[in-house]
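Recap from last week: sequence in, structure out.
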Amino acid sequence: MFAKELIKKGEVVSIKGGYLMDKTTLIRHEDIVNGSELQVTDDIFLGGKRLSVMIWRKLCGVLSVKN
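Predicted structure tokens:
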């Protein structure tokens, strides 16, 4: 990921919510998570496990940058 413009100190560039899950759970829900997970540690990921949440995120955009 990179920025087209300078990001000011303390500026919010992304907010991501979801469930913390291990790799086994991520694989079990991979059809819903669909590559939108964030890896936190070697075996812990942050991602959505409910289809309604993932549809909402895809419609609204996962990354928001404040100007």
